[in-house]
TrEMBL record:
Official protein name in the record: M50 family peptidase
InterPro entries the record matches: Peptidase_M50B-like
Transmembrane segment boundaries: 30-49, 95-115, 121-139, 144-162, 168-189, 210-231
Keyword Ubl conjugation found: no
One Pfam match: Peptidase_M50B
Keywords, ordered alphabetically: Membrane, Transmembrane, Transmembrane helix
Length: 247
């Protein structure tokens, strides 16, 4: 394919992305949802997909930090699948508190929004947005492992956006959204149970004097709200299969 043909194909794909596909039909959402739950609960699979949740967590710190006037200088995902984000600004005050709080709820928020968009026929737009964000944050990567992982994820998302059918794209986005929502709970419960003082609740406790357990409860509120949002978004596709019980 020459450059002109590639450009025409790209424009055609962008045009298809801007327009909404038909809303999803009952059948595959339960499978995508069940697969997502298993992906998070089965340890070998979770070790593979956990960086997705970690990445959204870290970019949640970065995004809220930017909105609060802080400067996002870089982030790292470690081989043990933990992460670290650096934002620069005042060391005390509401901005740093909001930035620290944002990490654990962010995967649930992004996951619920992705499910809502996919159910409404906008899975292609979600994939394109994810691809652009991944490409944009490459300049803030601060380790070779993180670089390799983000590039690999961008390649996978780009391939699905370019060649995936509307149904497969929607199924993938619903799966990813559900992984983020369930993964947000797994991360939050883990930090609440183990009480690691180096994690966000411990850092917030040192910063504010409020116990880490209370910060875990604060973070659980938006995670629960986003879980309900995701469940309601799936009520349409799941309702006919369950006799309208979700409505």
């Amino acid at each position: 394919m020459n450059w002109r043909g590639l450009l025409d194909a790209l424009l055609a794909r962008l045009g298809a992305t801007i327009g909404a596909d038909r809303p999803v039909v009952p059948g595959w959402p339960p499978g995508a949802l069940a697969l997502a739950v298993l992906s998070v609960l089965v340890p070998p699979v979770w070790r593979v997909i956990r960086p997705v949740v970690t990445l959204v967590h870290e970019l949640g710190h970065a995004g809220v930090g930017l909105l609060c006037g802080r400067r996002f200088s870089g982030f790292v995902i470690s081989p043990d699948m933990s992460g670290h984000t650096v934002t620069v600004g005042r060391r005390h005050g509401p901005a740093v508190v909001l930035t620290a709080v944002a990490g654990y709820p962010m995967p649930a928020l992004v996951g619920a929004a992705a499910i809502q968009a996919a159910v409404g026929g906008h899975a292609g737009a979600v994939l394109l947005a994810v691809l652009l964000i991944l490409l944009g944050v490459l300049v803030r990567v601060r380790s070779l492992f993180t670089m390799a992982w983000v590039v690999a994820l961008a390649a996978a998302v780009g391939a699905l956006w370019w060649s995936g059918t509307p149904r497969w794209s929607a199924a993938a986005v619903v799966w990813l959204g559900a992984v983020l929502v369930v993964g947000a709970w797994r991360h939050l419960v883990a930090v609440a149970v183990h009480g690691d003082r180096d994690q966000d609740p411990g850092a917030l406790a040192r910063l504010t004097g409020v116990p880490a357990a209370l910060w875990c409860l604060v973070m659980a509120v938006p995670v629960a709200a986003c879980s309900w949002w995701a469940w309601r978004a799936l009520a349409g596709p799941l309702g006919p299969l369950l006799g309208g019980a979700l409505r």
